[in-house]
Amino acid sequence: METCFDFSRCQKSFKVYVYPQEDGSVPSPSYLKLLNVLLESRYYTADPREACIFVLSIDTLDRDRLSNDYVRNMQSKLQRLPHWNDGLNHVIFNLYSGTWPNYTENDLDFDYGKAILAKASMSDSHVRAGFDISIPLFHKIHPAKGGEPGTTSASNFPLEKTYLLAFKGKRYVHGIGSDTRNSLYHLHNRRDIIMVTTCRHGKSWKDMKDERCDEDNREYDKYDYETLLQNSTFCLVPEVED
């Protein structure tokens, strides 16, 4: 651990330094929300000399090259950071990595060096035990603080909700994960099981769409994501890798 983390920076206190925003650089709402939580916390320090941990202001949550939130030229941006030092004592946050059609798990499209990776959907084969951090995949509109209180109590199980099972998300016409999500329409009965998918993702989806895409897209648009999940007893999490 002493070769990839400087413990001397953390002996006096645990402080987190967040790099200032670059001119003209606007992070995604999700990353901005994450940064604001850190900036408002008791661990934040504006002095990098006091910091145990460093957090980028550059948005690294979505490293899918087809995404609108994908930040280009990350390697050169990292090299310009005054305290980068090959990622020592830095934490990189990531929710999505890789790109269609392979979606390679650890493909962030930049070298994060000795930085700690705080990542969603990490497998045992890629996580560096005792060093990296596995975090949940959170939705863009997930509240940063609090939220509505839950309604579940010990006396109302099984839950009486509109739908028994639901899923709303992307499907992949071909490539990795296609077999799983392309089969979900068989379960969709429009009553208590709602399985709706869309082919609309990426810039060339129309060129590769199959005979079900138009029908699937129409059915997909009938359901609001939040309303659907809030009114479902169970929510399916289908794999995206075969």
UniProtKB/TrEMBL annotation:
Pfam families: Exostosin_GT47. Residues 11-239 form the Exostosin GT47 domain. One of its GO terms (molecular function) is acetylglucosaminyltransferase activity. GO terms for biological process: heparan sulfate proteoglycan biosynthetic process. It comes from the Eukaryota. GO terms for cellular component: Golgi apparatus. InterPro entries: Exostosin, Exostosin_GT47. PANTHER family: EXOSTOSIN HEPARAN SULFATE GLYCOSYLTRANSFERASE -RELATED, EXOSTOSIN-1. Belongs to the glycosyltransferase 47 family. This is Exostosin GT47 domain-containing protein. It comes from Rhamnusium bicolor.
